[in-house]
Design a protein that fits this description.
With 144 residues, the protein is α+β, with helices and mostly antiparallel strands. The protein is 23% helix and 35% strand. It has a single domain (6-136), classed as SecB-like (Bacterial Protein-export protein SecB, Roll). It is built from 2 helices and 5 strands. A hairpin with a 5-residue loop joins strand 2 (36-43) and strand 3 (49-59). The longest helix is centred in the C-terminal third of the chain and has 26 residues, at 89-114. It is elongated, with a radius of gyration of 17 Å. Belongs to the SecB family. InterPro entries: SecB, SecB-like_sf. One of its GO terms (biological process) is protein tetramerization.
């Protein structure tokens, strides 16, 4: 097995919440859900261990039937010596780490909305999360 420069150690759920909009009138209002994606990156005790937080908010309590917030934290180890292409840790996180974590976020959003038993499950589309974050610079934040 070939080792990579960015090794995924696992993830944990930091937040998952579903709030029903009690004032939403399904017969009158059209539902449009636009996910908001946020990314934070922080170094752990050692330089080579990184915690990457990926969060998604779907819906709102003003114009949607519900609001869902999900945030996962992935732990990654950066192997500098294996980064022979000199891609760099920031690029590996923004491209690879986010792509690894997004399916977990999608699954959590689907599960939360499906178990509401009131609306169909909200299934987030497969997207290039790194590109979305690039296009929404306010939604992305790097932390030292």
């Amino acid at each position: 097995m070939t080792a990579t420069a960015l090794e995924f150690k696992g993830y944990s759920v930091k937040e998952q919440s579903y709030k029903r909009n009690e004032t939403f009138n399904q017969t009158v209002q059209k539902v449009t859900l636009t996910p908001q994606i946020a990314l934070t990156i922080e170094n752990k005790v050692k330089e080579d261990v990184l915690l990457v937080n990926l969060g998604v908010k779907v819906g709102s309590l003003t114009d949607a039937p519900f609001e869902v917030n999900v945030q996962v934290c992935g732990e990654f180890v950066y192997h500098h010596e294996k980064d022979t292409a000199r891609v760099g840790v920031d690029t590996l996180i923004r491209r690879n780490a986010v792509a690894i974590l997004y399916p977990y976020v999608r699954s959590l959003v689907s599960n939360l909305t499906n178990t509401s038993n009131e609306y169909p499950a909200c299934i987030l589309p497969t997207i290039d999360v790194a590109q979305v974050l690039k296009e929404q610079p306010g939604a992305s934040e790097l932390a030292d």
